[in-house]
Amino acid sequence: MELKISGNVFALVPNLRVGVLVLSGINNKVDICKMFDSELETITKSMTSKFDGVELAEYPLIRAWRDVYKSFGEKKARSSIEALIRRIVGGKGLYRINPLVDIYNLASLNFELPCGGEDIDIMKNPLELTTANGDEVFLPLGQTETETPNKGEIIYKSGDIVVCRNFNYRESDITKLTENTTNAILVFEDLMGDADKLQHVLDWTSEKVRSLLGAEVKKVAVLDKTSPVL
Fold it and tell me: Helices marked H in 75-180 — which ranges?
């Protein structure tokens, strides 16, 4: 398994850092309802208070991600963390997907970092965060019709498979995490330069997947422009 961040991404987002967890032996069919409900209740209370009267578009984290999206011409998409925060603040809660996705969504909210995850066994080529040529093929989550990313859009891809569009805004149906996933990679994207927060999210998520899903954490890494390959 190799993950590489291309230089063309750092040309647009020089301060980007990506925290990575590579997991194996995942039991993604266990019941984590007790933990999930408790964590979500705590997050909801905290965020409802924190964002009371706050214009989300001007919140520094959300503004930073919007500016990055604009830098490669994206006008409509929003970062995954903005979407999650808006759900919580708007009283909509979180969709339950499967235990691993539920855990990383909680981690994303707890530490205010966009997160995504892919099934390693589906990807036969290295995973790369790069800019799109505009002719790649992408199958959106839950869809049957393919589409193409915009030229210059920042995407994750594996060979000829577009894994995610606009960083982690839209997930591919091909490489999605399912209850049958046993080996996975999770990525956490940081723009704000908080090294402690990035390490804490990796530690928190590692503990949860070990204790709840019986997973082995095979690799933990932080990628940036000085160290762009795992």
Answer: 80-89, 99-111
Q: Backbone dihedral region of 31: left (phi > 0), alpha (psi from -120 to 50 degrees) or beta?
A: beta
Q: Which two tokens stand for residue 72?
A: 């490669």
Single-letter code of the amino acid located at 132:
A
Domain boundaries, given as residue ranges, for the chain? 3-223
In angstroms, rounded to a whole number, what is the distance separating the alpha carbons of residues 206 and 67? 30
Q: Which residues contact 38 (CB under 8 A, 6 or more apart)?
A: none
Calpha distance 63→33 (Å, rounded): 33
Reading the block at residue 99, the tokens are: 């235990």
pLDDT in tens, 94-121: 999 999 999 999 999 999 999 999 999 9
Domain 3-223 has CATH 3.50.40.10: yes
One-letter identity of residue 199: Q
pLDDT band at 160; cut points 50, 70, 90: confident
Do residues 137 and 162 make contact, with C-beta atoms less than 8 angstroms apart?
yes
